[in-house]
Amino acid sequence: MDYISTRGSAPALDFAGATLAGLASDGGLYVPRTWPKFSQDEIAAMAGLPYAELAQKIMLPFVEGSLSAERLLELTRAAYGRFAHAAVTPLKQLDQQQWLLELFHGPTLAFKDVALQLLGLLFEEFLARSEQNLTIVGATSGDTGSAAIDAVAGRAKIDIFMLHPRGRVSDVQRRQMTTVLAPNVHNIAIEGSFDDAQAMVKRMFNDNGMTDRFAIGAVNSINWARLMAQVVYYFAAALQLGAPQRKVAFSVPTGNFGDVFAGYVAAQMGLPIERLIVATNVNDILHRALSTGDYSQGTVTPTAAPSMDIQVSSNFERLLFDVGGRDGKALAEQMAGFEATKAMQLTNAQREGAAALFSSARADADDMNRAIRWAFVECGETIDPHTAIGLHAARVAGIAADIPVVTLATAHPAKFTDAVEHATGIRPTLPTRVGDLFEREERLTALPGDYDAVADYVSAHATPRP
């Protein structure tokens, strides 16, 4: 299996190369040259497998040439052995049609752990085969940072620099990053929004002065290996609900489009998915793009669901490439136009291709609060604001009654105590394994929202190429 850029001009890489590179040299994102396919019989035979073994079977076609089947299984068992629930991503029923897929049983209480626990091991595996150190530069709207830091803290030959928008993540999210005091961990609080931080990261990947000195890698969902790992839980949930004989719909709270694009990949691999519902908050660029074709950047509005406070969804480029005929040159021109004007209209082919599987819904603060209260009062479940946005979208989607709808529960409610308490009157508590979080020492560096300041800081603290 090799990987090509969505913008068409970067060299193809194998899985190990794409994992260490993160962003392609032409500014595009890596995708597999072809989608591997499972037959219905092959999918049916996966029912009942332990999560780590299911993960190995789903991911094996993507890593061919870089990892053996035996080594991949060792890595999946190591990654998912750290989760607090034996099922790793347990499925919970709310009513006759609605289900929750709990993705927050990893060490940092968010769905990002499912991918990043494995990604940390993959980095270590591939770096051991080379002489280079890896300088990871990432941006976080909340959960990616803590999950990535937990995954690589203290690992040899890796330095991580994580940018977050100052004052725009929850206290729990911030402390899960800033209380990790390993010497290879650097937390940077910048003035501005997540989009500002993400733009700095992308600029660094295209800054020859930086990439010549440092081997820069990505942990954001621009890294293909992250999306690959997230494909697995779509299979896990659907198999429990009767796949491949029965179709399943999924509602996904999303800002950067990575989590829901993993569902698209699962469908391309043969999983019978009825619909992927893209759930946004008032930062609704994805809802506008999917419903009207208007992909235009607005101003980021801070909300009680900060991980979705995004107006530029990096992974949307992967979908546009795939449904638009995989024409890298045309997409490069389209994305250059967007980057210059902050506005873009989807082509007819892109709109029609997306509409075949995707629908979308937008939730404001009232919709979110009603969904939290409904889950709490009617179902006895406490959910976080992001999950609530997904649940709102699931309940208004109009999916046929005989098709189960699975909302991805992306974070533990105790990461967003104020919002949950406002809606339910109950303040959720952190699990005992992280219960002393507010007693730990914090360490971070505050920088202005200025690329040169961030690049100078990275240059002063990272390990150069040999």
- Gross geometry: globular
CATH architecture grouping of the domain at 91-109 and 224-424:
3-Layer(aba) Sandwich
Mean pLDDT: 96
Distance between the termini: 29 Å
Total count of strands: 16
Runs with pLDDT <50, length 5+?
none
Percent of residues in β-strands: 15-25%
CATH topology value of the domain at 91-109 and 224-424? Rossmann fold
Name of the CATH first level of the domain at 91-109 and 224-424 = Alpha Beta
Q: Helix share of residues? A: 40-55%
For the largest sheet, list the strands in their spatial order: 4-5-15-10-11-14
The largest sheet, given as strand count, sense and whether it forms a barrel, is: 6 strands, mixed
Radius of gyration: 20 Å
Secondary structural class:
alpha/beta
What's the number of helices? 19
Domain Threonine synthase N-terminal: 3-80
Modified residues (N6-(pyridoxal phosphate)lysine): 112
Protein name: Threonine synthase
Cofactor: pyridoxal 5'-phosphate
Description:
By secondary structure, this protein is α/β, with parallel strands linked by helices. It has a domain at 91-109 and 224-424: Rossmann fold (3-Layer(aba) Sandwich), CATH 3.40.50.1100. The chain is built from 19 helices and 16 strands. The chain has helices at 15-21, 40-44, 51-63, 69-80, 112-127, 143-152, 171-178, 194-205, 208-213, 224-240, 258-268, 285-292, 316-323, 328-341, 348-355, 365-379, 385-395, 417-424, 451-461, and strands spanning 2-5, 13-14, 30-32, 91-93, 98-102, 134-139, 158-165, 185-190, 216-217, 248-253, 273-280, 294-296, 343-345, 358-362, 405-409, 445-447. Strands 4-5-15-10-11-14 form a 6-stranded mixed beta sheet. Strands 9-6-7-8-16 form a 5-stranded parallel beta sheet, with helices on both faces. Strand 7, helix 7 and strand 8 form a beta-alpha-beta unit. The longest helix is centred in the middle third of the chain and has 17 residues, at 224-240. The protein is globular and about 60 Å long. 56% of the residues are buried.
